[in-house]
Amino acid sequence: YRWHHARETRLSKFNQTEIRAMLGSYTKVLFVRDPFHRLIATFLQRMGISPSFSSFIQEVLDSGMLNGSRAWKPLVSLCRPCLIQYDYVVMFGFLRQELSHLLRRAGLLAGSLLPELSDSQVQLTYRWLSEQMFSELSAQQKKQLAHFYRWDLAAFPFSSSFLSD
């Protein structure tokens, strides 16, 4: 198939027959992460560009859906979980257990292929970071962020997300 050699080509570039064939022939895995954690990670990677987390969040909100970076766009706008039937949805924070399951399903020895992951430490770190950074935001920014990510929060079980409060 010619699409096997198409690097980072969007599905929209193919016709309906090709799309159906591709989606039917692959195991589709979607990796999801709490949108607030994605924002924190993006901010930390861009340290020095925005003077504060609050100003970074304002940039995100001002950019909106159309002009926003893939780093912070809502997942439902990027991955189309309502249109594509994913075989697996892997939640960040449960990577070790879920990846181990996926590798076993693929007939691979999970223990030898997985790096040492410490999901509980990652969750604790992000919980602490979330508390610190969420407190920097105005009530208006919190409300706008919850609205911006409303479809992600509805589509995925981010029950402990600061944005779903």
Structural features, described:
- The chain has 165 residues and is mainly alpha-helical.
- The chain has one domain.
- Helix content is 53%, strand content 5%.
- It contains nine helices and two strands; from the N terminus they run H-E-H-H-H-E-H-H-H-H-H.
- A two-stranded parallel ribbon has the order 1-2.
- Helix 3 (53-67) packs parallel to helix 8.
- The longest helix has 16 residues, at 119-134.
- The protein is globular.
- The model has no long low-confidence stretch (mean pLDDT 83).
- It is found in: Golgi apparatus membrane.
- It comes from Grantiella picta.
- One of its GO terms (cellular component) is Golgi membrane.
- It is a single-pass type II membrane protein.
- Belongs to the sulfotransferase 2 family.
Which strand order spans the largest sheet, edge to edge or round the barrel?
1-2
The number of E-state strands comes to 2
Number of helices: 9
Query: How would you describe the shape?
Result: globular
Structural class: mainly alpha
The residue-averaged pLDDT reads 83
Q: Helical percent range?
A: 40-55%
Strand content: under 5%
Q: Could you spell the SSE succession in H and E letters?
A: HEHHHEHHHHH
Q: Characterize the largest beta sheet: strand count, sense, and whether it forms a barrel.
A: 2 strands, parallel
Distance between the amino and carboxyl termini: 46 Å
- Cα-atom Rg, whole angstroms? 18 Å
Question: In total, how many domains does the architecture comprise?
Answer: 1
Show unreliable segments: none
